[in-house]
């Protein structure tokens, strides 16, 4: 800002409105260095002129700084006297408090020396010697764009004096005491220094180091980790106990607990390949994709409704969810996975999968009745750009919508150049929530089905047109009042009651025959169409993408062509030539190929880091969606590059990376650190032990259903609706609206298949930190709150599962009669199922003691006491946490 930094220090220009979502960004943005011709362009509505003015002003360079000690070159005594007598008193009284003394100047702007004035502050030069009338100083004292001083406009004679002084060349004597030039940091520039940031450099393939702990190493992961431990004077802990390891493995790969038989089989297998065999089996399970697909759905803010006031459904969104799950199960190469989502409709061979994948563009929140349609469209596109940047590139591109990125070397043009690749996209739907928008629903039925529906639609249209001609002939014979009624909602009623009176018998019989044919045609059964949420009916040719001044759609500037992030490459995209009849511009495929390229230094690194994060609780780069200058540095950069190289060389396949991590000594270590490790490395950045973690919301619910014996393992298909507490539904404007009712069996399916309604999340999931689907979620944080325990002890769902759990335990043991001995057996079985290990005698006696207390002091039956114990068992930390 030229004069001030804080919004309280200046008055907004009178013509600036704060009604839009992005209007407030103007408060924090720097003052526009625009002269009268910019204002004229904005006021007149000539946005192109305004945009050119802004660009010209931002590119304008200050005059060369005078040499030190030569602050008043060639000024006459009269000019200097004019400054002392007319100008200096104005500055002292109105400006110097913020801009005239001290080592810090608001907005980086100083009036302490002439060279300071000429260089200016964060908005550029304060005085333009070649165009004095366009100087920012003249602009603000006249209260044109901004109002300076903020205490009140200067008198007209003082404004005239300052204007005359600027035209004289701003003569000033040198300061009595030298004043240092203000230092103000602007946005990082794209240069050799910023290009050298670790994440922007090409991926390397470092050799694994050597350490004294290499005898324990199972692969290169361990060698890199052990070397850093040794340098810090630490050593790795021992391996985890086998029962702990198998439980950790099952939840980590498929998100479900192992059965007692699976645990015992692993414990009894003494072969060195025992864990590798289980890893391979789990990675081939259809339930692997359900666990790992959910991690991707977090990132892309998956939900099946629009948010905002009505929060209506997005038809067929569940097919995108199944596409993600199936892609993980098939180990689809990650580069192909990205390309399909970004440009599946532009591939040389468009497939069912690739069309469904473009549903990625339709997952964002969408306002079905915006106050400003243009603002809403750019907000929608911003959500897509921001999500794509963070998820696929680990870059916060969205921060450059209104100005050059403040933290990363990313000019505003990079943002709009990125957006320009998507210039053919239409909004999710039109105003009013069109449920089957022609822009977001694609028919992917077989050619035979499409042809059958097309033929029937044509026949229906022909019959309707014939009937309409007969109706219109009769209407022309009716009275004026009846004619007017046929133009509105009463048309059907008028035709039903009076049409026959204005037709001959032959005409009416013919009309009835057509009507009967139409009814029969509509009743005819046809194979159902398969519609999918997707990109459809793109705008061709693609719209021009202007650079929006301060991110405001009402002030478009110069057009911006598609361009890659300039800090990563100087190459210009090779865009396809448009030809008549093209359905898309082909630009998104260019962007997708660049993002998914093995030459891109970010894409593979970001995904490898995310896979590591999912296995270890945090990434080698903790800020997993921010690899920029202010993101966290990698704790083990060489290891990250080594894994990234293997990932790329392996064809971007994820399962081999899982195998490498899961087979490492590091992942199989105990979670019990030594005192020395905790003192030397409290954050465990060196990975000297495995970190215990709480189960995710889905793992908790699915694990509970698994131990109660109620889990329905059906795979894929439309989403299900669980029973929602009446108290929760009562919070809706129309209680129960948009929430269906599935059968009890369907309600017990895995959590990934539960309908995700943005305004109505399932309490058993949201209380355990299920992500907010309005924005991308790079990591789940595990909180500890009273509401979690209140939910798990008192909710109808948990109590019902406790009852089912008690029945399952009795069925496993074939116990009909409950006595002291059989109750002890039930306690032991319940603890075995929840902890995946045999309980100790003391633990069994403690559980039996609780049952006895409930029976004796609580006066409850043995059946109910066992249910209460089972409720306690599913609330044990050992069930809710993984060692």
From TrEMBL:
It comes from Planctopirus limnophila (strain ATCC 43296 / DSM 3776 / IFAM 1008 / Mu 290) (Planctomyces limnophilus). This is Cytochrome c domain-containing protein. Gene3D superfamilies: Cytochrome c-like domain. Residues 82-286 form the Cytochrome c domain. GO terms for molecular function: electron transfer activity; heme binding; metal ion binding. Keywords: Heme, Iron, Metal-binding. Pfam families: PSCyt1, PSCyt2, PSD1. PROSITE patterns: CYTC. It comes from the Bacteria.
């Amino acid at each position: 800002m030229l004069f001030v930094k804080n919004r309280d220090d200046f008055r907004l220009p009178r013509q600036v409105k704060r009604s839009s979502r992005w209007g407030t960004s103007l408060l924090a943005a720097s003052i526009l260095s625009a002269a009268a011709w910019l204002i004229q362009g904005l006021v007149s509505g000539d946005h192109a002129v305004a945009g050119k003015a802004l660009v010209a002003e931002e590119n304008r360079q200050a005059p060369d700084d005078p040499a030190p000690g030569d602050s008043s070159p060639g000024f006459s005594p009269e000019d200097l006297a004019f400054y002392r007598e007319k100008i200096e008193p104005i500055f002292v009284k109105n400006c110097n408090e913020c801009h005239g003394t001290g080592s810090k100047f608001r907005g980086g702007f100083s009036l302490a020396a002439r060279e300071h004035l000429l260089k200016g502050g964060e908005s550029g030069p304060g005085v333009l010697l070649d165009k004095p009338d366009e100087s920012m100083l003249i602009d603000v004292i006249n209260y044109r764009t901004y109002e300076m001083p903020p205490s009140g406009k200067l008198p007209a004679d003082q404004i005239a004096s300052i204007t005359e002084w600027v035209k004289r060349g701003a003569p000033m004597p040198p300061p009595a005491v030298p004043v240092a030039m203000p230092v103000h940091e602007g946005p990082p520039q794209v240069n050799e220094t910023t290009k050298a940031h670790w994440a922007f450099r090409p991926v390397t393939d470092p050799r694994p180091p050597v350490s004294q702990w290499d005898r324990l190493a199972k692969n290169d992961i361990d060698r890199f980790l052990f070397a850093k431990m040794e340098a810090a004077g630490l050593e790795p802990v021992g391996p985890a106990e086998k029962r702990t390891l198998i439980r950790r493995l099952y939840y980590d790969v498929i998100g479900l607990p192992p059965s007692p038989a699976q645990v015992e089989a692993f414990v009894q297998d003494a072969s060195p390949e025992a864990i590798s065999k289980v890893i391979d089996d789990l990675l081939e399970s259809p339930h692997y994709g359900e666990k790992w697909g959910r991690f991707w759905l977090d990132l892309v803010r998956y939900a099946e409704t629009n948010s905002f006031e009505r929060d209506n459904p997005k038809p067929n969104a569940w097919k995108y969810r199944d596409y993600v799950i199936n892609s993980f199960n098939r180990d689809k190469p990650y580069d192909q996975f990205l390309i399909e989502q970004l440009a599946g409709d532009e591939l040389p061979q468009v497939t069912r999968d690739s069309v469904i994948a473009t549903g990625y563009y339709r997952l964002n929140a969408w306002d079905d009745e915006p106050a400003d349609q243009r603002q809403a469209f750019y907000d929608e596109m911003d959500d897509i750009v921001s999500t794509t940047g963070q998820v696929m590139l680990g870059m916060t591109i969205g921060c450059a919508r209104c100005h050059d990125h403040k933290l990363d070397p990313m000019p505003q043009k990079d943002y709009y150049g990125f957006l320009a690749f998507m210039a053919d996209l239409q909004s999710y739907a039109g105003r009013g929530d069109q449920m089957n928008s022609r822009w977001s629903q694609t028919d992917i039925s077989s050619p035979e089905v499409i042809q059958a529906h097309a033929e029937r639609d044509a026949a229906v249209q022909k019959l309707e047109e014939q009937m309409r001609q007969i109706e219109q002939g009769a209407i022309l014979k009716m009275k004026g009042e009846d004619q007017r009624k046929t133009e509105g909602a009463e048309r059907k009623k008028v035709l039903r009651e009076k049409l026959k009176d204005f037709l001959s018998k032959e005409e009416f019989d013919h009309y009835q025959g057509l009507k009967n044919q139409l009814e029969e045609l509509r009743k005819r059964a046809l194979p159902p169409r398969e519609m999918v949420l997707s990109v459809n009916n793109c705008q061709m040719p693609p719209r021009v993408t202007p650079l929006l001044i301060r991110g405001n759609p009402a002030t478009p500037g110069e057009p911006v062509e598609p361009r890659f992030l300039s800090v990563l490459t100087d190459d210009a995209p090779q865009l396809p030539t448009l030809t008549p009849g093209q359905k898309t511009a082909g630009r998104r495929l260019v962007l997708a190929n660049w993002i998914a390229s093995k030459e891109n230094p970010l894409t593979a690194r970001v995904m490898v880091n995310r896979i590591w994060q999912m296995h270890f609780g945090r990434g080698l780069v903790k800020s997993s969606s921010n690899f920029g200058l202010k993101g966290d540095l990698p704790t083990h950069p060489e290891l990250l590059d080594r894994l990234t190289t293997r990932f790329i060389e392996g064809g971007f396949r994820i399962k081999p990376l899982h195998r490498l991590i899961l087979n490492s000594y590091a992942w199989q270590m105990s979670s019990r650190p030594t005192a020395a490790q905790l003192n030397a490395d409290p954050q465990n950045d060196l990975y000297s032990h495995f970190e215990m973690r709480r189960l995710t919301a889905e793992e908790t619910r699915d694990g509970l259903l698994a131990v109660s014996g109620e889990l329905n393992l059906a795979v894929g298909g439309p989403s299900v609706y669980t029973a929602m507490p009446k108290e929760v539904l009562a919070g809706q404007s129309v209680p129960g609206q948009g929430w269906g009712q599935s059968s009890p069996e369907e309600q017990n399916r895995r959590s990934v298949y539960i309908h995700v309604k943005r305004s109505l999340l399932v309490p058993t999931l949201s209380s355990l930190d299920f992500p907010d689907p309005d924005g991308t979620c790079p990591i789940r944080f595990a909180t500890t709150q009273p509401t979690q325990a209140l939910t798990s002890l008192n909710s109808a769902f948990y109590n019902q599962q406790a009852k089912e759990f008690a029945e399952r335990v009795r069925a496993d043991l074939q116990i009909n009669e409950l006595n002291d001995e059989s109750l002890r057996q039930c306690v032991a079985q319940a603890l075995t199922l929840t902890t995946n290990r045999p309980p100790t005698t003391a633990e069994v006696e403690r559980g039996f003691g609780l049952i006895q207390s409930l029976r004796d002091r609580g006066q409850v039956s043995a059946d109910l006491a066992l249910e209460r114990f089972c409720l306690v068992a599913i609330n044990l930390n050992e069930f809710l946490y993984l060692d």
